[in-house]
Design goal:
Keywords: NADP, Oxidoreductase. It comes from Pisciglobus halotolerans. Helix 2 packs across helix 3, helix 3 crosses helix 4 and helix 7 crosses helix 8. The chain has a single domain, classed as TIM Barrel (Alpha-Beta Barrel). Strand 1 and strand 2 form a beta hairpin. It is built from 10 helices and 10 strands. It is 40% helix and 16% strand. By secondary structure, the protein is of the alpha/beta class.
Amino acid sequence: MMKEHTFEFHNGVEIPNIGFGTWQIPNEEAYEAVTMALKNGYTHIDTANGYHNEENVGKAVRAFDLPREDIFVTSKLPASIKGYDETLESFEETLSNLGMDYLDLYLIHAPWPWDEKGKDCTEGNIQSWKAMEKLYRDGKIRAIGVSNFSISDIQALIESCDIVPMANQIPFYIGRDQDELLAFCKKQDIVVEAYSPLATGEILNSPEIKEIAERTGVTPAQLCIRYCLEHETLPLPKSTHEERIIENKKIDFTISPEDMQRLDAIEDIRKK
């Protein structure tokens, strides 16, 4: 459920409506980047074991002058790890890397290993999910979810496990709306997180996006981030430049229905 400044998972836990993404930020740069984000009002930090930066992400969160409970931290089970015991072991590694004793959100990073996209790992995902249910019930994680999961991937968990995923983190940006998956998640009360809301920068030079942004009085990046929120998805913009980190959070405006219609009609630039 989307509120003014947060989304609410179906278990009642709230998550700030914009997260600071750390994908592709090397560990040696992560401390400064996360510190800049926290200094500029971000209280939702997203990382993953597979990003190889959990150590300095955790260090920045611990060093910042805010109580741990005021900062929402997400990490992810590596896509290659499938299985009950393996998941428990990897989670403990993540906690150790971060220097924390609990996580706010933990996700299965993908339904298949990155080098075997499309592989059927249904049984492994079910076992990993059951391990995450245990960690959730033990109070080690406040919310559990998935990432890059299709409808059938999620359905398999729902049919075999006790807890419906609370989040699904997927690529979502202007031109890649994933309408069917979005509708399914909404029906199941699963919060959709939008990673790569700027399509790693590839859509910022779109003439149409630039024209609408200029007329709205915002930057193309701000328009793209607001677009995600208008679709009730939670954007995770990422930058290592402070001026952009500040800019990406200033999205206190709305996009007109007419402009949303135009933006919805834009084709995925990555397919051209």
